[in-house]
Design goal:
Layout: H1 2-44, H2 46-55, E1 58-63, E2 70-71, E3 77-89, H3 98-108, H4 112-120, E4 127-133, H5 135-142, E5 149-158, H6 166-169, H7 181-185, H8 187-190, E6 195-201, E7 207-215, E8 223-224, H9 229-245, E9 250-257, E10 263-269, H10 282-285, H11 288-291, H12 301-310, E11 319-321, E12 326-329, E13 332-335, E14 342-344, H13 345-351, H14 354-363, H15 366-375, H16 402-408, H17 418-429, E15 433-435, E16 448-450, H18 454-467, E17 485-494, E18 501-514, E19 521-528, H19 537-555
Length: 581
């Protein structure tokens, strides 16, 4: 038994030695493998290790591109980009205290509880704290040295004219992309291409070194508009004052260069300030002169007469018996505001007779009137380059019933935008040719569309000039020193839900051109739902036209074509011939 015990002890000691040696061998083997691996990596893979290390401190950061400057036709900037900073946070890294949250709230003028909630959401690694912040405020925030708070450079659009040009220029979003107006229409032209650079960041994410520029930013291209900023200010000022004075729902003004088709001014009210998103509402942002349609009323009568002249149905001297001031077509009654009896075609334009217009329309083929309206762009988008253009409404002539043919003679049963209407009137200024519209400054002669014959256009101008003389519907449209031609419109508004016209809601308008001897400008004015006693186009829209046209002619140094006397100046209290359709 003793011999057996001694053998077991020796066996146990040998097993312990074997285990110890095996363990030591494994440890030394592991150290040797690590040493060989370290030597291998340091000697042969040094570049790889450096690269991996750099990845943990180097980043590729975007370089924002500068958006193109928008200028008016005289080179005055109307939209520019200014450098700003955007502050963002990584809630996973950030853990600010109550005092630090309060400091941020004081700088940003925000609720500290709202800021605290942004930091509290640890599920996110990127959250905007404040977009497009002024650089001084951004520097204040970064001076707090808060972990997990970062900044990046961006650009913010600035519009010097504010609400005066809001509808034309539009607005960009927080990412500097066009959303409305010219900013949207020419987004690809104005927007640049962001660049990229390799930077070194510290543990807080701040850029401590710019290593290289991978791709330089490509700035956007500049844009020169056809608009004249001074005429735009004038149009907006006069329109705003008139809408407020007459307690109207809204209004629009369009000023065109009659020869080139360039839009010199386009104003709407209510408007919005593109520098303040607080004013950005659907009601205010709508570019009414481009996107809204209305029944043009008597402003269509010159086109009817022009079509009748070209069809040789009438001449300016042709007489029409308007009888007692009313006329029955089918079971409908067409009326004039005042009975005028027998009058010439020229006189019917001067006093805006609905009965005369209806009788002329019924004497001619509907196709002739429809063709002229179609050539004048009614029923088609005006292709000005502005977003949201509408085509209006012009039904095929073969669907017109007699009563519809008669009412379309004085602008009921079709619809237009104010820009369309102004554009159509350029045909009277150019011997029957309507130049293509543009929002950009035009360097060459515009192509045009023939709307009416040379003879028809030249015969219409004297008739349109009679409208602004004593006895016409718009003596208030006159401009001292200039001969003015144009036409008033006073139309009942169509009910939104259909079923006829509103009895006491009107659209008052006037479209005219000057100097009548050699037309240079076309100005169109539309006032939606003027309140109070007065609503005739000759009383509401014509005075706005007079002031805008007078200022625009001076800005453009257009020489007068008549004497500066009382006959060319707007009358003080001269009676205005009433009209209504």
């Amino acid at each position: 038994m003793k011999h057996s015990g001694k053998a077991n002890t020796m066996l146990h000691l040998d097993l312990q030695r074997w285990r110890m040696r095996l363990t030591l061998a494994l440890l030394f083997g592991g150290f040797a493998a690590l040493s060989v691996r370290a030597v291998y990596l340091q000697a042969w893979h040094n570049d790889f290790l450096n690269e991996e290390g750099e990845k943990r401190v180097q980043r590729v950061a975007p370089i924002p591109a500068y958006r193109g400057v928008i200028s008016d036709r005289r080179g005055e900037p109307v939209a520019v980009s200014t450098p700003v900073e955007t502050i963002w946070i990584n809630p996973k890294q950030a853990n600010p205290g109550a005092a630090e949250i309060q400091s941020l709230a004081n700088i940003l003028d925000r609720d500290p509880d709202q800021i605290a909630r942004l930091f509290a959401d640890k599920s996110k690694g990127f959250v905007y704290l404040e977009r497009l912040l002024e650089p001084p405020k951004a520097r204040q925030i970064m001076a707090l040295n808060l972990e997990g708070v970062f900044s990046k450079p961006e650009y913010r659009r600035y519009y010097p004219a504010g609400e005066v040009m809001g509808h034309v220029l539009g607005i960009t979003n927080l990412d500097d992309k066009g959303q409305e107006g010219v900013e949207l229409a020419f987004q690809s032209w104005l927007a640049g291409e962001a660049g990229a650079q390799r930077v070194v960041r510290d543990r807080l994410g701040n850029v401590v070194e710019v290593l290289e520029q991978i791709k330089p930013p490509k700035p956007g291209r500049d844009l020169v508009l056809s608009l004249n900023q001074h005429i735009q200010y004038l149009a907006y000022r006069e329109l705003s004052e008139a809408v407020e004075k007459h307690k109207a729902r809204a209004g629009s003004v369009v000023v065109l260069d009659a020869r080139t088709g360039e839009i010199l001014a386009l104003a709407n009210t209510p408007s919005f300030n593109p520098n303040s998103r607080a004013t950005y509402t659907p009601e205010r942002v709508r570019n009414r002169a481009v996107t809204d349609v209305f029944e043009p009323g008597s402003t269509m009568k010159p086109f009817l007469v022009a079509a009748a002249l070209d069809a040789r149905v009438v001449s300016p001297e042709t007489t029409i018996d308007t009888g007692p001031g009313w006329f029955i077509v089918g079971d409908k009654k067409i009326t004039d505001t005042h009975a005028k009896g027998v009058m010439t075609v020229a006189q019917s334009i001067q006093v805006s007779s609905n009965v005369a217009a209806a009788k002329i329309a019924l004497e001619m083929r509907g196709e002739d009137y429809w063709r002229l309206l179609s050539n004048a762009g009614i029923g088609a988008r005006p292709n000005s380059g502005l977003p949201g253009e509408v085509s209006g409404r012009l039904r095929p002539f073969d669907t017109w019933r007699p009563i519809e043919k008669a009412t379309m003679a004085y602008g009921h049963g079709l619809s237009v935008s104010l820009l369309q209407l102004a554009h159509a009137y350029t045909a009277f200024a150019n011997d029957g040719v309507m130049p293509a519209l543009t929002t950009l400054r035009r360097e060459s002669v515009a192509t045009g569309t023939r709307v009416m014959s040379v003879d028809g256009a030249r015969k219409m101008l004297p008739m349109l000039e009679m409208v602004t003389q004593n006895g016409g519907t718009a003596p208030m449209a006159r401009v001292a020193g200039y001969r003015v031609a144009g036409k008033t419109g006073t139309a009942h508004k169509f009910k939104v839900n259909g079923g006829g016209y509103e009895p006491d809601k009107y659209v008052s308008s006037f479209v005219g051109l000057a100097p009548a001897s050699n037309p240079r400008l076309v100005v169109a004015v539309m006032i939606d739902e003027p309140g109070g006693r007065d609503y005739y186009g000759g009383l509401i829209a014509a005075p706005i036209f007079s002031r805008v046209m007078a200022g625009a002619l001076r800005f453009m140094a257009v020489p007068p074509d008549t004497s500066f006397n009382s006959d060319s100046a707007p009358p003080g209290e001269a009676p205005v011939v009433a009209e209504s359709v």
